[in-house]
Amino acid sequence: MKKNDYGTGRIGEIIKNLQNVYGVEDVTDLPENIKLHSLVDSLQLQNSDFDSLIADNSPVFRTVKGHAFESVFKYVLEENNHEAIQMGGDDVVDLKVNNHTLQLKTPNMAGTKNGFVQYKTHKTHGAKSERESMDYYHSIDHFAEYLVGLISYEPLNILFLNHKEIPRHQLDNNKIMSPFKVMWQTHEGLNNFKRIGVNKIDLESQNHIPKDFDLEQLPKSSQKLNLKSEIILDTILTDGNFRIWDMSIRGFAREIAINNFLSQYKIKSLNPVPLKKERGDKADFAVNIKGAYKFFQVKGVSTNNCRFRGKESIVATETQLTRGRVNDHPTQSRLYLKSDFEYLMLALDPPLVKKYSNEIGIDCELKWQIFCIPTDLLQQHTVINHRINALQKIKYVDLLKFELNEESIRNIFKV
Question: 27, 212, 214, 310 - which has most CB atoms within 10 Å?
Fold first, then answer.
C-alpha cells in the first residue's frame, strides 16, 4: 500500500493507511514525525498552517482540548505500566481500566473557581435542553462506574467520582445534574487512582508537559494546551475522536486552501454580513467585483452520498444550513434561498481529488481542487422553487468545467 493512499480522507482511513504501511495496530506507537506527516500530507498543508488551524480556530481548539485529556490519562497510565482500553460506540464509557468503566471530563472553566470544579455531563445528542425532555440528562444507572474529571495538568490533579458522589437533578434523583460543582481540594477522590485498581503511580512525572515549546512540532497548539505535540496528534489519530478531524479540521482546512488560492490572485474576501441587509450571514464571504458585491457559499463534499464508479462518479454536497426544517419559513427554514449567494464554492480535499481522478484514468498527486458553480445552475427544491435543494449531485467529469484556474478566475473575478 502507498504511504499517501488516504481513501476519501476521513481519519479512519488515514489511521488504516498508517496501520497497513507500518504494520502496527496502534498508530499512536509510531514516531511523532510520521503521525504529523500523514495528517498534513493528506491536507497538503505546511506544519505551521496545521498548527495555526488548531490553535487559532476556537471550534477546533475546544474539541481537541476536550478529547486531549483522554490521551493524557492513557499516557500517564501506560507510563506507569497500566493498560487503558479505549471503548467505542458508548458515549458514557470512554475507557476501561482494570475492568472499571470510566467517563472522562474536562472542567467547565466558567464555573470552576473558589475551590470548586464544574463539569457538564448532559447528552450531546437527542433532547437539547431540560425544557424539551429530561432525557437531556444521563441516567446514573447507565453511566460509567466512575466520572474521571481533570482539574489541572500541571500539577497533575484528577478527580475520581463514584456514583454516590455525583450530584443528581432535583426533579429526578436518577438523573445526573449538568453542570454540577464539587469542592475538589479535600475530596476523597482527588488523585485516588486506587479506585480504579491502580495502586502505584508517579504523580510527579511531567512527561506530558513540554520542556521547550519551540522544540515542539506544533508549538502554538502545544503552548496553548500546555501539552506535548505528540499527545495532540494522538488525540486526533484516535478513531473514536473522528469528529475532531472529519467534522472540524477538514472544514477549516478548506477555508485555508480557498484563502491561499484567492490570495495568489490578490482577491480579497470580505465579511458578507455588513454588505447585505438581509441574510448576509447565509454567505461565507463576499468579493467586490468591479464595484458590485458578489456572495459566495463554501461547502465540502458529503462523502456518504458520493459515488466512485469510473466516469459515472458522482460528487455530492449538502447545500443546506445545519439547523432548521425543510420548509419555506423566513427564519426557521434550513434551505438556502437562491438569492443568498451568487456562487457555490466547492472544495475537494486532496485525497478525494486523487480518488476521483483515478476513477477517470488520471494519476495525479495530492492537491486541492476548488470549483465555483453559479447558483443558477444548482438544483432547486422540487416544491419550493425559490430555494436550493438540500443535496446537490453532479458527475465529477461535469464538475471539472467549473474548476477554478487562471482562465475561470479572470472570468469570474475580472482580475
Answer: 27
All cell numbers assigned to 334 = 434550513
Please count the helices (runs of H) and the strands (runs of E) in the chain.
Answer: 11, 15
Answer yes or no: are the C-beta atoms of 235 and 244 closer than 8 Å. Answer: yes
Residue found by looking up cell 504494520 in the block: 23
Contact predicate 86/242, CB 8 Å = no
Which residues are within 8 A (CB) of 144 and not within 5 positions of it... i.e. 6 or more apart? 92, 93, 94, 101, 102, 103
DSSP lists the bridge partners of residue 393 as 316
Q: Please name the residues in contact with 406: beta carbons below 8 A apart, sequence gap of 6 or more.
A: none
Element spanning 62, H or E: helix 58-79
Please check whether residue 102 is in contact with residue 265, taking contact to mean a CB–CB distance below 8 angstroms: no
Task: Quote the pTM value.
Answer: 0.86
The answer for residues whose C-beta is within 8 angstroms of residue 317's C-beta and 6 or more apart is: 299, 300, 301, 302, 344, 346, 391, 392
Phi, psi of 288 (to 5 degrees): -80, 110
User: pLDDT (tens digit, 9 = 90+) per residue, 344-369?
Assistant: 999 999 999 999 999 999 999 999 99
Determine how many CB atoms are found less than 10 A away from the CB of residue 410.
Answer: 11
The CA distance from 354 to 42, in Å, is 10
Kindly state the DSSP code that residue 21 receives in the 8-state scheme.
H
Cell matching residue 400:
471539472
**Is residue 372 a contact partner of residue 408, using CB atoms and an 8 Å limit?**
yes
Q: Is 9 left (phi over 0), alpha (psi -120 to 50) or beta?
A: left
* Neighbouring C-beta atoms of residue 52, cutoff 10 Å: 17
Rounded Cα–Cα distance for residues 235 and 150 (Å): 16
The 10s digit of each residue's pLDDT in 132-150 is 677 888 899 989 999 999 9
Using DSSP bridges, classify how beta strands 369-374 and 157-161 pair: parallel, antiparallel or unpaired: unpaired
Strand, coil or helix: what is 102?
A: strand
As beta bridge partners, residue 188 has: none
